[in-house]
Structures are given as C-alpha cells and as structure tokens.
Structures
1.
Amino acid sequence: MAEDKERKVLGIISEFANIGAGSAATALSHLLDVDLMNDVTTCEILPLSKVADWLGGGNQIVAGTYTYLCGELKSGILVVLPQDSAVSLLNHLTKAEIDLSSLTELQKSALREVGNICLCWYLIAVSRMIDIDMIPAPPDATVDYLGAVLNVPLATLGAKVDTVIAVHTSFKALDRQFDGYFLMLPEESTLNIILERMGEHCK
Amino acid sequence: MNDLTVVGIAQLAVSRPPSRLACLGLGSCVAIILYDPVVKLGGIVHVLLPKAPNHYDQAEKYADTGTKKLVDEMIKEGAIKARIFARLVGGAEMFKAVNLAISNIGRDNIFEARKVLHQNSIRIMAEETAGKRGRSVYFDLDIGKVTVQTAFGGEKII
C-alpha cells in the first residue's frame, strides 16, 4: 500500500513538474529568441541529503539561482545550471566570450535574469494549476561548488524540509544540448497543500 | 589520493596518518579542523548551523555542540588539550541578496565555533572564512597541512 501511495505521489508531482518545466522552457526560448526543443523531463522526490549525489557530486562547479516563497506556501527554490550550459546561455545572451571565474556585472545580471525568468514561469504555471498564488522573493545567483550552493537551502530550511522535488530537464537549442535542474524544497505543510490541490486537479 | 575520507555535512572524523580528511563544497557550512602535532592526530567536524536547540538530533550538525564533541573525541584518542590548535574554514555568504531577509548563517557558524574553542583554551592558528566563495578543504594528517581550494583554481595552504 505504501508503495502504491508513493507511486501515486510521484505521478502527481511529475505532472506538476512537467507543466512547470514546459512553461519555463517557453519563456527561455522567448528570452533567447531561438527555437527550443524540450527533450526529456524527469522528476524525482529525494531527501535533502541525497540531492548533491543526484546532481553528480558536490565538488563540481555550477551556476545556481536561489530564492524562496514568502506567501501562503513556504518553499525554497533553486535553479541549477551545469557549467557548460551556463556558459553557452550567457555567451548567446551577451554576445561575449564567457569566463565563469570572472563574470562582469552585466554577465552576472544576465545569469540572475535567466534563473529568475525560468523560476518565475515555472511558478506561474504551477500556481495556475493549483490555484494558489506563489510569491517569490528577489533571487540571487552565484557560480560556485554545487555543495556550497546547496548549503544555503540546507541551512535555512534544513530543519523544516526533508523532501526535495527535483526536476531534470534537457533541451536542444543553438545546435547543442542544454541541461537544467529545478529544485523545489517545500515545507511539509506546503507539500501537503500541493498534493491535495493536485489530487483534485487530477480527478 | 589514497586513504582520503570525505567528511560530509553533520559528520565528524578523527584520524591519524597516512589517511587524509576532506570537506568538499563548504558554503555557509564551517569545517573546524583540530590537530595535535606531537601524536599526529587530527580531526574535522563539518557543521551546518550555529546553535543547537534544546532537543537536538545530532551534535555534529551544530557549531557549538559539534566543536565540543570534536575536542572530546580528540582527547579520547590521545591528544593533549594544550597541544591542540585549530583552523577554521568556510562560513561564506553565498546568496547575498536573498540573505538580506534571513540572517547570515555563515558568520554565526564561525562565531559559535570561535566561542567554544576559546572556552576550551584552544588556539586558532589560521582562518579562511567569510567572503562569498565556496571552499573545499583537504587535511594532510602527516604534516598537518591544510589546503583550501576555491572554485576556479584558487588554492591556499594554511
């Protein structure tokens, strides 16, 4: 029975994540002004401590954008781009050679904006679906070790959060493959609200 | 790279040569590194939060209880308190704009660790703390060398 329930929850969450990721991809394709083919979106529910391994180890360098919801729903949100995907995106946006170790203010701002747009459109899609407003705080972006990026949600939410809705999406654009990870870290009460509302939606 | 033990979040390790200890990807987390050069005994605790609540699950998760436990473990393994010295690494502020609304956990972690070390009369030899960059740290127990790396190749020995 427990397994059955788990599978059902994963099904509901996958639906939730897919619609969000689709919306984020559309927004990104407008921002970049290119056609974008969404390839695969996979979704997992993970304990917080397993996230670094799922993403391929804490010692790799990634671009992360972090914010949290401050409305009725409480959740941390982290958009993670692997190094090569971040470089290609910034390269296309700013039309300049990108060195992640010494980003200019403009490039940093562009990175923050990419993360911001992706996460906001994800939130818009899912909040329409469950009919609850989600209000994100202004996000911030950084390029650093994955482990260090994950420290922040771990430390600020660690006491209240144990479940992470982790979405991996890959898409084709500009003649290459991009990867993006979208991590939602809801407090337990928020996760229950989402499941409840999505349950109704699925009926 | 033999005998490298990675000390994860909320973990503690005390060891002797030839093994080496490491903490990978420290953000606001702090690694408290103790070493007794005479018996070549070294230990690391990788803490996440500054202060333990009244009913805490793991002592190693918090800077105050974690540091205390590391000192006790070192002494149990044969170190002498007067010979132990400490080094602190980590406690960065990763997302500054977001942190405006929350408190600076990295800074609080360092502060709590310093306080406990001071209460135990343990010297802090070096610190590689605060700032905005994440760090990885490698601890060679044979000569007590601590190497701190930042993303994009910055390396420093403390």
Note: The radius of gyration of chain B is 15 Å.
2.
Amino acid sequence: MSPPHSTARFFASSRALFAAAAEAAGARERCYQIAGHELLVRFAGSELVARTDPALGAVRGTAASPDPEVTIEMWDSAASGIPMPRPPWSPNDLKPLGLVGPYCDDRFHTAVDVHTASLSTFDAAARRAQFWLHDARRMAYWQSASPLRLILSWWANSVDMQLTHAAAVGSAGRAVLLVGGAGAGKSTTSLACLAAGLDFFGDDYCLVAVQPKPRVHGVYATAKLQPAALAMLPSNIGTVRNASRLRREKAILDLPAPASRRLADGAAITAIVAPCVTGRVALERISAGASLRAMAPSTIFGLFGATSGSLRRLASLAATVPGYRLELGADVDRVVDAVTSLVRAA
Amino acid sequence: MTERVLAIKVPVVTHERLDDEVIAINLETGIYYALVGTAADIWSSFDPASTTSVVADQLTLRYGANASRVKSDVEAFSLRLEAAGLLICSTDGHREGAPVIPRLAPGARWETPQLEEYRDMADLVLLDPIHQVDETGWPRLPEPQE
C-alpha cells in the first residue's frame, strides 16, 4: 500500500507533466457547456483534439470563462515526447475494475483502464482532472466516440448528477431514458426515434440529475451501432466514421448538427424504459426495483464502480419515475409509437 | 460461545432498497443480486451489523411466523450471502442504529428467501488489471486499429 499523502504529490507531478507536454506538443483549449456547467479541456497537441472534440461538438461553448467549473488536461506521450514515469503504486493496488485503491478517496479518483491503456484522474476539491494515454493515434474507437467518460462521471457525482448508461429521446422538453446493458436495443431504438423526428440526447451515456426534478442532459453527439442495425435506419441518420473497420468494430455515427440540436438543452425525464429484443412490440409497467436492476449494473460497472452515491442516485430516480419494459420487434414504427406515447404520457 | 456478528461487505458491495426489493452489487466479482420480500428483509436486517438470532427474532415478530422456520431460513440464507461475498463477519460487533425496513405489505407471509443472481456484467471484471501492465507499470497498448 502506498502512503495516503503521496496522492496529492502524484496529482501535482501529473500536472507538471501535462505542462511539459503542452509546451512540447502545443497547447489547445476547448470549452464545453454540459448541463449548465462550463468545462475547460486543455489538450497537449492537436491529435487528441481531433480524436475527442467531434463527439463533444454539440456541447461546445464559445469562450472559456476565467473560472471554469472543472479543468481537464489531456495528453499523450507520443505527441509530446514526454514519457509517463512508472506509477507510484504497486500492481497489487489495482482493484478488479481498474481503480487504484490507495489513490482513491472522497477527494481523489484514480483509475487505470486496461481496455484502453489510459489513465484518468480527478481531484474534486481542486476541480481538476487529467487523462493520459501512450499514443492518441491508437485511442480505442469507443473511447473516441464517448471521450472522458470516467472523468465526467466523477465530476458529475461531485455536483450531485450521474452519468448514466442510457439512451434518451423526447420532445417538447420531455424525454424517456432507454436503459439496459449492451445489446438491449438502446442505440437502435433511440436512433429510430431520432429518424422519426424526436429529440436525441444520447444513445449510450447521458447525464442525469435527480434533484430537484429528474432531468436528462446530452453529452455526446455520436452513436454506436452494431453494423447490421444500420440497415434498419435511414442512410442520412449520421456519418459512419469507421466504415472500413466494421468487421471488428461497432459503427460509430457522427450525428449532424440538426439531429443533436436539443442535446445540450436537456429535458424532464418522464419514464425509464428497459428495451429487450423479443420479436414483438409490447409495453408493460415494471416495478421501481426492476427499473433499477435494468439501469444500475451496467452504469456502475461501466464506470469502474462509479462513486459511493451513484446507486443511491439511480435508486432515487427509479423511485420517482415510472418504469416500463419495452419488447422490441422488427416493426420499428410501432417501437417509435410506443416510446412517443411515453414521452407524451406525463 | 458468542454468536458471530454479520455485516454487509461495504464498500465492495453497494446496495439499495426500493419497496420490497434490494439490489446488491458486488464490485469485486461483477455479480449483482436481487432480493425480494423476505430476502430483502433479511438483507436490511444486517444493516447495521447483527446476528442471525437477532434477525430471526425481529422477522418472526414482523411476520407473525413460526420461529423455528424463520430461524432456519435466516441461518441458511445468511450463509449463502456470506458465500457470495455479500456479508462478512464483523469485527466491530453490533453497530448503533436500527435497520430501516418499510412497513410490511398487507397479507405478506413468511416465505423461504430467494437470492436472484445475475452474471451478465461479470466479464467486465474478469480482465485482471494487475497482469495487464507491462514493465513500465502501465497497461499494454491495444493493437493498432489502422
């Protein structure tokens, strides 16, 4: 176990490394407005901007405030030539999901993502975060589609919101959350609703506020789809950015600006919907517990365990908003009708 | 012999109760559980830490049920929760406070508790971070995409 006092030292030395990386590769900045909060992202070099900024395009702000809500530093060793020193923790300090045990507490969050070979840190008191990987050119495709997920999750928890594994669609300021693990049908359903004219707030991860009233905010103007599902949707729904790699990757769609026009505004949550593919279209009420069971595990595990208040926040949402099970069949129009009826039911 | 005091294994296990259903998530194994009705009541009775005797006595009163049957069910179920890594033997002994259990629904009867187990997230924790780092101490790079 590393001594606790080394956490602050590690965070301070990481900031110095970013400063050196930005000096070497060239500093870039982007400002984003998410759920009314201003986030400043500072990049070392242009490659990381190219890899991550398009997904955040719908929440991009016009100018950085002198006092952003949080500042996130992103850098890679390949572009900057600055190596990341050996970590101060022992491999035995890594928990099963990748959290670095001795470097996590109520203030500091540290995680090593072995799936993407990246490091994410967040200092809630200083409102500063950092993301590092060896080489931005080798960023995982899903990380590029929804960048900074872990850091945004920690930050959201610090302001009593929850990044949630859910799609969200709606209209007229109201929206339903589509929840469930991979393959449940969240992306196909939400994109079918977008194609039918509903507002789109996300197909995979959305930001949820439970208090004072449940509300969803979009973050990413992208969607991830099984390539076979592309045939169920209009060809102009979005631009497939990885068309040459669909044999081994999900399709990543960049959604055009009109499609994500309401994404940053957010909407009141009127229902939690757990889709599942059965071959016929049907809708039925489920208990709050069943809603929570559909929503929480993939959110918690997908966010490395999230934080101590995450499950409580999701339970509070499930207790407040009615839950439904939506059976999915090939008749996409009926699926869209079912979702639309729930948006309008409140 | 002093009876063992059992406690929910926090923070490895995160849990919430909604009405008569508990969801408990084991962050180390990737397995999550649903506990409904009597199972949820047994779970809530170990928050704060308690003994199976105390829990059985409380639930016998709550349900107006046969004491020996409740005691037998509570003992068997708590052993199962321990085996799943959800409960641990507490070294702190009893803790302050009383369990928070919602009012019993009209007509509810004592039934043998069930533990519903879900393993669809377990793959996420099967990749062992400790053995995925290279000699620099950082994760190995994924294969190039292009």
Note: DSSP finds nine helices and 17 strands in chain A.
